[in-house]
Amino acid sequence: MKKRTTENVLPRRLLAVLLGALLILVGVLTVLFAAETSYAYCYLLGAGLAVLGIVRLVKYYVDKKHGRGWVLDAVGGVALLVVAALFVLNPKFIISLLPYILGLTLVAAGVGALLSRNRLGSVILPILTVVLGVVFLFNPFEAGVVFTRIFGVALTILGIVRVISAIVSDPKKGAPVEEPDDGIKELEYREISDK
User: Fold this and answer.
1) Which of 5, 67, 135, 166 has its CA 20 to 30 A from that of 116?
2) Dihedral sign, CA of 84, 153, 141, 110?
3) What are phi and psi of 40, to 5 degrees?
4) What pLDDT is attached to residue 184?
5) What secondary structure letter does DSSP report for 181?
6) Domain total for the chain?
7) In a domain, 100, yes or no
8) Per-residue DSSP letter, 33
9) What is the pTM (predicted TM-score) of this model?
């Protein structure tokens, strides 16, 4: 059986504190510099999409050598690369579209929720969702900045929670503990004769 020790807990705790501090830093920067961080998020998302596109293309060519190549992997890889290029080469266009997409999504979600509700108390949140969606549609730039700042506040809160939970977590959790059995039991059997 494997045993956990206290030495394993300290690096995890330190990593949790560092991750929390990084989230706090990114959150504060997002709140203070909403427009600039929107561009940074576009570049990061574009880079991530490019990596996914390259992985899909490599998978297609490797599978093709073994006679299992699936054309949709290649098409998906190229599509991801095109979208990644759009995010990296024209982030202003992407940023200008996001409030409209978010606004339409909120309006649709709110209307769908309204149509499925039958009590007064349950219609308040869908109505607020529709109103928020309309605000995004008719005032996209300011709504986009507010949304980015809300995202920054959420990152900051998440970082604070991570740091606090890492600091106040029970150090006894790192004490040696026996791992539970894997559930496999030895069975004894014998042949029964029909005599």
Assistant:
1) 135
2) positive
3) -60, -40
4) 64
5) P
6) 1
7) yes
8) T
9) 0.58
